[in-house]
């Protein structure tokens, strides 16, 4: 009887990331050669209007040993819809001992943290967050106003939810056990009402009740690796965060 190898599913929502997404996939391929697990990447192109699809297709051709599965939306539907599509795609393949890792696709998250995050799952956590608010975190190249915006969101979301073990509610770089995700999806497909930045926090609050515990590790966030300009709209982000917290 063949024993199925444990799999790490890396989920990437992609919108106008150009070459950055290719650079990230190259780093993931390098990680694959150093880990004794299977790695499968699901990437959803959320209606990009730049050359993102060219870079994604180039990655599929050139990184032949890395299992990359491309999904696409006809138009830009937002981060929430991208996450819904990714979780729906991975659900039929997910086992309890597998792990899901969600990441930004702009190459700002250090893939070298993934083994440490998976180790946290193996020690009993159902979710491990790469956090900007733990000793040892390193954030470079991020504009001061973006730091202020993220910190403000942290304070508001912490006051609203107070999830044990969580300091960073909005960083998408997280590992989650297959068992916890399956417990969530047993109640139906993932649905998120948030379309933008707050979808990361909403996903966290949806998964948290199905996690025995949540841990954090200090992040390495290298914003200078991002090739294209940020897609974040500051005023819209502030408004949608407040609406999310207020349940509107």
In short:
With 248 residues, the protein is α/β, with parallel strands linked by helices. It has helices spanning 19-32, 52-62, 79-90, 114-122, 144-161, 178-185, 199-207, 234-246, and strands at residues 7-14, 38-46, 67-73, 99-102, 127-131, 138-140, 174-177, 214-218, 220-222.
The number of distinct helices, counting runs of at least 4 residues, comes to 8
Rounded to an integer in angstroms, the radius of gyration calculated over CA atoms is: 17 Å
Oligomer: single chain
Query: Major sheet, described briefly?
Result: 7 strands, mixed
* Strands in their spatial order, largest beta sheet: 3-2-1-4-7-5-8
Our estimate of the beta-strand percent is 15-25%
SSE pattern: EHEHEHEHEEHEHHEEH
Low-confidence stretches: none
Portion in helices? 25-40%
Cα(first) to Cα(last) distance is 52 Å
Structural class: alpha/beta
Strand-helix topology:
Layout: E1 7-14, H1 19-32, E2 38-46, H2 52-62, E3 67-73, H3 79-90, E4 99-102, H4 114-122, E5 127-131, E6 138-140, H5 144-161, E7 174-177, H6 178-185, H7 199-207, E8 214-218, E9 220-222, H8 234-246
Parallel strand pairs: 1-2, 1-4, 2-3, 5-8, 6-9
Antiparallel strand pairs: 4-7, 5-7
Helix pairs in contact: 1-2, 5-8
What does this structure look like?
The chain is α/β, with parallel strands linked by helices and 248 residues long. 38% of the residues lie in helices and 19% in strands. Helix 1 packs parallel to helix 2 and helix 5 runs parallel beside helix 8 (234-246). The model has no long low-confidence stretch (mean pLDDT 89).
